[in-house]
Design a protein that fits this description.
It is built from 10 helices and 12 strands. The protein is an alpha/beta fold and 276 residues long. The strands form 3 sheets. It has a 6-stranded mixed sheet, with helices on both faces. Bound molecules: adenosine-5'-triphosphate and magnesium ion.
Length: 276
């Protein structure tokens, strides 16, 4: 999206002020395992919402439910004015407006970067060839890959592949983008180039839900931070506030562990239930 277009979009949403995504008492279990245990959450237009929490706390499931990749057991999810958890909803149409980017880039290995971008736009979105090509080149430029349009995924670094995946998610002009640990599979020196692309998207007014372990990103780019554990939102608020002055003991423990891992492995011990 060009800056002017993003500007127009934010004027539009400011006028209507309907949240882009809203969850109301969302519950989801896999067998006996309660994975989302009554989640209430609102994402406003232009907001970058960051979700943190230990492994298994339900972060990916949360994003997958919003993208309708998983059905919820109860509760409701709204996308703009529409309840998308109701029966008979047009899933494909909604997915075009709710983009998702995964840890594994999921690019088609036999397609050049540009064709990875245009494929869904042409097949699902029925975008004319010429328009799809133009838009794809524009988006590849936006993620710093103008010169890699003709490259195949195996000719690109992990960071470049992930930026292609982000550009692909932008093809259908989504109203919200979901990011599930998109830098976790990257070599450390490649993380920055992907985070910068995400930061710039946020600055341009893209509404985003970002599951991440990158606390610096949460601090600098996040408008709101949610800490999840055991399928519940334990604590939420301004990112700096939550990270610097966590109120819940569970949040403190999680952050202490994260900071410890940043420093060294020496002080870590294995306790019942995992590393603490
Ligand atoms: N398709 C599935 N079938 C059965 N159980 C599942 C499925 N997907 C997730 N789970 C379980 O749900 C719980 C939450 O998983 P989820 O992937 O949402 O956690 P997460 O917070 O994203 O963890 P991580 O930080 O490791 O990615 C886990 O106990 C997991 O084993
Ligand atoms: Mg996950």
């Amino acid at each position: 999206m060009e800056a002017a277009e993003a500007g127009a979009a934010s004027v539009e949403t400011a006028r209507t002020a309907t949240p882009v995504v809203r969850l109301e008492g969302v519950r989801k279990s896999f067998g006996e395992n309660v994975v989302l245990d009554g989640i209430d959450l609102t994402v406003h237009a232009g907001e970058a919402l960051v979700v943190i929490g230990p492994s298994g706390s339900g972060k990916s499931t949360l994003l997958r439910c919003v993208n309708l990749l998983e059905p919820v057991d109860s509760g409701r999810i709204f996308f703009e004015d529409q309840e998308i958890t109701s029966k008979g909803v047009k899933v494909a149409a909604i997915r075009q407006r709710i983009g998702i980017v995964f840890q594994q880039f999921n690019l088609f290995p036999h397609l050049r970067a540009i064709d990875n971008l245009t494929l869904a736009a042409r097949r699902v979105g029925k975008m004319p060839r010429q328009e799809a090509q133009l838009r794809a080149r524009e988006l590849l430029k936006r993620v710093g890959l103008a010169d890699k349009a003709e490259s195949y995924p195996h000719q690109l670094s992990g960071g470049q592949q992930q930026r292609v995946a982000i550009a692909r998610a932008l093809m259908m002009s989504p109203h919200v983008l979901l990011f599930d640990e998109v830098t976790s599979a990257l070599d450390p020196e490649l993380v920055g180039e992907v985070l910068v692309v995400m930061r710039d998207l946020a600055r341009d007014g893209m509404t985003m839900m970002v599951v991440t372990h990158e606390m610096q990103f949460a601090r600098e780019v996040g408008d709101h931070l949610v800490f999840m554990d055991g399928g519940k939102i334990v604590e939420q608020g301004d990112p700096t506030e939550v990270l610097d002055r966590p109120k819940a003991e569970r949040t403190r423990r999680f952050l202490r562990r994260t900071l410890q891992l940043d420093r060294s492995l020496e002080e870590l011990t294995i306790e019942e239930g995992g590393v603490e």
